[in-house]
């Protein structure tokens, strides 16, 4: 009798016959990945299967191993909202920690950042409520149209052949100062408004600290207006019946300037460091910050936009049972048509520009058309 190895026959995902139809049917349900899970699927649809060369592109270093490397944790206490009284020593120390983290990891966790715990908890709870509400109610928000400021969707790259991700997202995009807060879904409106207000203050502080870490005036990045807009993406990662075959988010770097992320205690976020996947563990009360592609470009490669990914949520283990919830707040420029290139003050004869100037719209358009295929968009802008 011929034995069919089910796993290996299910490993190929890219551009198979019938993919487009399967994707369309999935999208038409408007119920996202949670809809699939609720309908009781035991095998994930083929377009979610990530090829092994992407899945196993680096060994994993678990944070359970205490000798392992750890994403830097930076205590912002004493600098967020409180005037220094030590001649700036504390501030200089924090600036230096940010510089080292941005140059080596591209990631750091922040504690004592000034966002009240209740505000963070409320955002997580209300995000869960949004994703777990009645399907009919949630479907009203479903859209694959990226120009919609507020929308619910499942994976924004269904138009590409890149494997889909085991997650649903609620995107709230506020360009410039235009918060359009009245447009937010009722179930998470208050909580999001409060969180955005608070996280905006953290961004302001980081903008100063990152400027100083580059040896520039504190106001430099603020005046560059590169982080005037915000895009809050609240993710829901349902428990996956075959978590070893797919990912919650395929490895990618973030296309904007700065990301501030709030994650719950389920775990699964990993960052690529020295060619290893290192866990970014849940840290009570912390926010995660990471450098985006456009910051790598304006710092002429000094601050790194580092690849990261999220494992598909499992039913148990890894610190807690899924579903996993997180909220990423991306900061990007105002709508003004301004291109961004390496900052002149950072360039010299020995440090010539590595990248050409790019308007953020051009950057994100390329990023979206490429899809999350496991490769970076930055090389397209190399000189
Ligand atoms: C992202 C991202 C990580 C997470 O949205 O770009 O990397 O933990 N999210 O949800
Ligand atoms: Ni990301």
Q: Which ligands, by name, code or SMILES, are bound?
A: N-oxalylglycine, nickel (II) ion
**Number of distinct beta strands:** 15
Terminal-residue CA separation: 58 Å
Overall shape: it is globular
Please provide the ordered H/E string of secondary-structure elements: HHHHEEHEHHEEHHEEEEEEHEEEEH
Approximate strand percentage? 15-25%
Give a description of the structure.
- The strands form 3 sheets. Strands 2-3-11-8-13-6-5-4 form an 8-stranded mixed beta sheet. A 5-stranded mixed beta sheet has the order 1-10-9-12-7, with no helix packed on it.
- The chain has 11 helices and 15 strands.
- Helix 5 crosses helix 8 (189-213) and helix 6 (117-132) packs across helix 8.
- The chain has a single domain, classed as Jelly Rolls (Sandwich), CATH 2.60.120.
- The chain has helices spanning 6-9, 19-29, 32-38, 52-55, 89-104, 117-132, 135-139, 189-213, 220-224, 293-298, 360-370, and strands at residues 60-61, 73-75, 107-111, 150-153, 168-174, 229-237, 247-252, 258-263, 269-273, 276-279, 287-291, 308-311, 324-332, 339-340, 358-359.
- The protein starts with 5 loop residues before the first helix and ends in a 13-residue tail after the last helix.
- The chain is of the alpha+beta class and 383 residues long.
- Helices cover 29% and strands 19% of the residues.
- The structure holds N-oxalylglycine and nickel (II) ion.
- Nickel (II) ion binds at residues 252, 254, 308.
